[in-house]
Amino acid sequence: FQFFWLSLNVWFFGKTFLLYNQGQQYYYLHQMLGLGLCVSRASASVLNLNCCLVLLPMCRVLLAFLRGSQKVASKKTRRLLDKSKTFHVTCGVTICIFSVLHVAAHLVNALNFSVNYNEEFVTLNAANYRGEDPRKLLFATVPGLTGVIMVLVLFLMCTASTYAIRVSNYDIFWYTHNLFFVFYMLLMLHVSGGVLKYQTNLEEHPPGCFNPNKTLRQNLTVLKAFEDLFPDNTTQPSPEDVPVPEPFVQNSFMRACSEEPKFQSHFPETWFWISGPLCLYCVERLYRYIRSNKPVTITSVISHPSNVLEVRMMKDDFEARPGQYVILHCPRVSALESHPFTLTMCPTDTKATFGVHLKVVGDWTERFRDLLLLHSNQDTEILPIFQQRRYPKLYVDGPFGSPFEESLNYEVSLCVAGGIGVTPFASVLNTLLDGWKCYKLRRLYFIWVCRDIESFRWFADLLCMLHNKLWQENRPDYINIQLYLSQTDGIQKIIGEKYQALNSRLLIGRPRWKLLFDDIAKCNRRKTIGVFCCGPNKISKILHKLSNSSNSYGTRFEYNKESFS
């Protein structure tokens, strides 16, 4: 997908390059600037397109609406929405690449404006005189100064978006990425300068034409100078007596023009490109702010093994589908920072509680855990449950869509989780525990790979309850649970008598993915199986490759993925 989009932008760049290279309205400007004009305008067109589209994948409410509406009935179309993050990153990389081209071209243009200053076309020149310092065009004009600041902002956003910085210090990524608003404001000012101009009177003045009136004046000037030098050898010609050379009047290769060329600045097209998406994004952010301005009620906080915290809460009129996620914002942890977490429990008709599991791996989650557990450990035996703890204010934005909403829309689904990547499937399992007959899903393969035996205890109770429920309903084949412990010093078990059903499904080592896919394909001949993965990229790449490979059973695998890395 990334290669296709970059190729499309290169094609768009080439078409725009030819337009400015061959367009007659840019003849005189091209004579002055050369290829710098074509490169700068072509790269600007590509930047307009990507600056327009880079905001759309961040319109989370719009994507969630499209995913949940009946207007997008095709699974393939809904799966394209799952590529929103990839598309956002691809547009960002494209902006960085073509910004380098755009800046380099304008540096050449600034030099050419100074060196190739033309006194005949004063309005076409960006420089004020020949030999003017090009740095004045860069730092003393609105387009130049805003361009320099935009380069600095884009450099900060680009470097802070790298994987190393996002993992080591997410705050830097968060705050620098919000500079996008400054970038767009500068972009609107940047295009208002009107430095590059085009010719408007092509009919009256074809490019490269001959102007008889201008030549007449030049001839009169020459004759006057000749008279001053040789007064005795000249006569007094009148303007009517000065002949106009015939080739300049009628020539198949050169046309006569009736007036001087007129130039006009382009209307800033960038406004057309970015105003719509920017307004849509701002309206959505306002809607999300209004929707999430009321704090939720935290009902319980549970500390799980391996630094995992479970938070259960309630909120009026909150509705969510299995597999969706929310964005948590705690002002006491950070005034501006917020983070997405997948719902592990969705509200139903019988209970209004919803919850998330979060792994403590960074500064934000550490401070959030300390605030919650500090209040949870207080002596609260006398007070009622809703008065005994004063948790910090917590705001919830969402819910938003994810690929895992489709897991219940297949007849057969394969769900693969790595470590804390089990959270999207927890809400699916909780939903099946409430009732599975109303969904299309008739068989679920659940694979969970962990390094630590204690990690399985996060949802061991849930898995056991679902297993027992399906046995009581005579559907033990509805769910196939396989737990893999990838690192161990010996045979281990999930401690507890009630976990015997899981201990029999606990395997040591890593899954043999090829054999697993072959076995599933054999048991589900000529069916379409949804493959859902939330875990490390290494597992994701293996599953993606196996899903795209063919098999002899006529079974088709459709791959879906969410990465928490």
UniProtKB/TrEMBL annotation:
Localisation: Cell junction, Focal adhesion; Cell membrane; Cytoplasm; Endoplasmic reticulum membrane
Keywords: Cell junction, Cell membrane, Cytoplasm, Disulfide bond, Endoplasmic reticulum, Glycoprotein, Membrane, NADP, Nucleus, Oxidoreductase, Transmembrane, Transmembrane helix
FAD-binding FR-type domain location: 291-406
Pfam families in the cross-refs: FAD_binding_8, Ferric_reduct, NAD_binding_6
Transmembrane stretches, start-end: 42-66, 87-108, 137-160, 172-191
Organism for this UniProt entry: Polioptila caerulea
A cellular-component GO term for this protein: focal adhesion
Biological process according to GO: defense response; superoxide anion generation
The name this protein goes by in its record: NADPH oxidase 4
Domain of life (superkingdom): Eukaryota
EC number(s) per entry: 1.6.3.1
UniProt cross-references to InterPro entries, sorted A to Z: Cyt_b245_heavy_chain (IPR000778), FAD-bd_8 (IPR013112), FAD-bd_FR_type (IPR017927), Fe3_Rdtase_TM_dom (IPR013130), Fe_red_NAD-bd_6 (IPR013121), FNR_nucleotide-bd (IPR039261), RBOH/FRE (IPR050369), Riboflavin_synthase-like_b-brl (IPR017938)
Role summary: NADPH oxidase that catalyzes predominantly the reduction of oxygen to H2O2. Can also catalyze to a smaller extent, the reduction of oxygen to superoxide. May function as an oxygen sensor regulating the KCNK3/TASK-1 potassium channel and HIF1A activity. May regulate insulin signaling cascade. May play a role in apoptosis, bone resorption and lipolysaccharide-mediated activation of NFKB. May produce superoxide in the nucleus and play a role in regulating gene expression upon cell stimulation.
Reactions performed catalytically: NADPH + O2 + H(+) = H2O2 + NADP(+); NADPH + 2 O2 = 2 superoxide + NADP(+) + H(+)
PROSITE patterns attached to this UniProt entry: FAD_FR
